[in-house]
Each structure stands twice: as structure tokens, then as C-alpha cells.
Design a protein that fits this description.
binds S-adenosylmethionine, two-stranded antiparallel sheet
Length: about 300
């Protein structure tokens, strides 16, 4: 039964939540989670605090803000763009329509990179890490924060995304630790730059799959962050082709990709001259969504690299 309160009544936290959840059931969403996120951000408290505050009346200004935010969610806008923030590992990142909302599976990609950094700690004392297509800066800033020895560089083809990422790096105290470059994949960095790790979550959805996407993704998130030509493979192909020139021998390439194309991308690399230890990893749902590979040791493509190979 709908239990809408007149707007001037003294509504409590529990009333507002109950009402919002009932209304959000009408849009494809996670009603409770969305309502709690919108209300807790409006009140400036943690989600867990809402339960403790259930019986507390909500002042009119907060009710109005919450109602306006709810209306935006009911119109399909993602919760993170409405509040302006998205949680990613230990970070609370500012996000807006210039950047993809960072996803939980990308947290797994960061975890996989951190595992390799830990395993290679003795060899890579100050690992140089390159995040291609940084968006909000999620991967780069998380790695900078969680691996203090890392020297992190982040790129994007979108100036707007770089503005968001720079601001996030500053607000998380990582402005000095992460450098940024604008440009098309590895064209953004100098031809002589070498990295121990290249990590990327590039666009990998085929434009033909657009209609199958949830509306709040298709209609709100930047298409330049979602779609890639050649059936979703064009950007992955470019990164896989260019990365060996910028990785040290034994360096890691870590990619997020779609489960439907993971084996195809792994097949390009399996047995190829430049790559060794090609491995697909599952996300929490058990789907192959990460590819890890090492740059094969041996003579590099460009003679300028040979000195480095012998070290
Ligand atoms: C899927 S989003 C990933 C954003 C962020 N790394 C994350 O995981 O949340 C892909 C990012 O790649 C950027 N991008 C798209 N094409 C690019 C290109 N040719 N060169 C560099 N970056 C590109 C987009 O602007 C977008 O920020």
C-alpha cells in the first residue's frame, strides 16, 4: 500500500525511505540501495547510520533535496551522477557525465595488479604503472593509494575525463603521485617511456549491442567510454598491439574486457612472440572479465630498448 505523506508533515528518515523505495520499484533499479544512497548522501551520513536515525524527523531543506534527487532517479539518471560520487575500493570518487561510473569488476582488476606488484616486490622496487583510459581516475588513484612505491601515470582521450581524474587525485592526496597525459592510447606517452605495468579498462561494447544495454547506462554514460568498433574489439586490439613497446621484459598487461570476447583476445596473445603467461581471470560472478599477460623477455621491438632488456 502506498503510504505517501503530505509534503509538510513531519517525516522521519524511515518514512522517507519507505516512500522512496515504493516509488523506485517502478524503475529498473535496486530500490532500497538507491533510496539509501540518495538519502544518506543528502543527509551527509553513512548508509549504516540511517537505521540508527530511523525515527528522526528530516528537516524541510533535506526533504526537498531528497525529493529532487528522487525525481532524477525516477527519470532514469544513475544514482552516482545524481549524488556526484561513486565508491571504488577505499575511494569516494567524484563523477559526472564526463566519466564512466567505476564498476565493482574494475576493483577486481586493481586487486589483480596489486597481487602482481606484491609478487614482484623485490624486482620492481618502484614500479611504473600506466592506466590507459583513466576516466574518473579510479584505477590509477587506487593503485597510487594502495601501493605507495608505485609511480603512476594515467591517460585519457577525453579532456573532460582528465579534469575529473585530476580533481579526484588532488582530493585524495595523490595529486603529486599520479601524472596525467592526454591522447589516443599509447600515443599519449613518450615513445621511450617504459612501464612495469600497463592496466586498462577500455571501451569494449560493440555498437550493435547498444539496444541490449540498461537504459541508465546507454542514455547517461559517455559513449566514448562504452563503445568500440570492430565488434567491441578495436580498442583492445590497439592496446595489445602497442603495449609491448612500452613494457619492460616481464612487464604486466592487465585488461578488463567482456566475457563474450575474452577467449578471442586471449587467443591473439597466446603463443604470440611478444607475450607469455596469458591468463584469463573470472570476476565475482564467475565470468572471464580480466586478462593478464607478461611481455615476453628477449630482444625488444625497437633497438633502443635492448639496453633495458639486458638489465
Ligand atoms: C570503460 S571507460 C574506463 C574508465 C575508468 N578507467 C574506469 O575503469 O572506471 C574507458 C575510458 O577510455 C577512454 N578512451 C576511449 N577511447 C580512448 C582512446 N582512444 N585513447 C585513450 N582513452 C580512451 C574513455 O574516455 C574512458 O574514460
Amino acid at each position: 500500500m502506498l503510504r505517501r505523506m503530505p509534503p509538510n508533515a513531519s517525516q522521519t528518515v524511515a518514512d522517507l525511505l519507505h516512500d522512496a523505495i515504493e516509488r523506485l520499484v517502478r524503475v529498473p533499479s535496486s530500490p532500497r540501495s538507491d533510496a539509501e544512497e540518495l538519502l544518506s548522501r543528502t543527509l551527509g551520513v553513512g548508509r549504516g547510520d540511517l537505521r540508527l536515525m530511523a525515527a528522526r524527523p528530516v528537516e524541510a531543506a533535506h526533504r526537498d533535496t531528497f525529493e529532487a534527487r528522487l525525481a532524477r532517479r525516477l527519470a532514469g539518471e544513475p544514482v552516482q551522477y545524481i549524488t556526484g560520487f561513486a565508491a571504488f575500493r577505499d575511494l569516494d570518487l567524484a563523477v559526472d557525465g564526463r566519466v564512466l561510473i567505476p564498476r565493482p569488476e574494475t576493483e577486481g582488476l586493481v586487486e589483480a595488479v596489486l597481487d602482481v606488484l606484491a609478487a614482484e616486490r623485490a624486482r620492481w622496487e618502484q614500479p611504473r604503472v600506466l592506466d590507459l583510459g583513466t576516466g574518473s581516475g579510479a584505477i590509477a588513484i587506487a593503485i597510487a593509494q594502495e601501493w605507495p612505491a608505485a609511480i603512476v601515470r594515467a591517460t585519457d582521450a577525453s579532456e573532460g575525463a582528465l579534469q575529473v581524474a585530476r580533481a579526484n587525485a588532488e582530493s585524495h592526496g595523490q595529486g603529486e603521485r599520479v601524472s596525467f597525459a592526454h591522447g589516443h592510447w599509447l600515443g599519449a606517452v613518450g615513445s621511450d617511456e617504459r612501464y612495469e605495468v600497463i592496466v586498462s579498462n577500455p571501451p569494449y561494447i560493440s555498437p550493435a549491442e547498444s539496444d541490449a544495454l540498461p537504459a541508465d547506462v546507454r542514455d547517461w554514460e559517455p559513449h566514448s567510454a562504452l563503445f568500440s568498433e570492430e565488434d567491441g574489439l578495436a580498442d583492445l586490439r590497439e592496446i595489445v598491439e602497442e603495449a609491448p613497446r612500452h613494457l619492460v621484459a616481464g612487464g604486466l598487461l592487465a585488461l578488463e574486457l567482456s566475457e563474450s570476447r575474452a577467449t578471442q583476445v586471449a587467443a591473439w596473445m597466446d603463443g604470440a612472440h611478444d607475450w607469455a603467461r596469458v591468463e584469463l581471470r573470472d570476476d565475482l560472478a564467475g565470468l572471464p572479465r580480466m586478462l593478464l599477460a607478461r611481455r615476453e623477455a628477449g630482444p625488444a621491438i625497437a633497438p633502443a630498448q635492448w639496453g633495458e632488456e639486458r638489465r
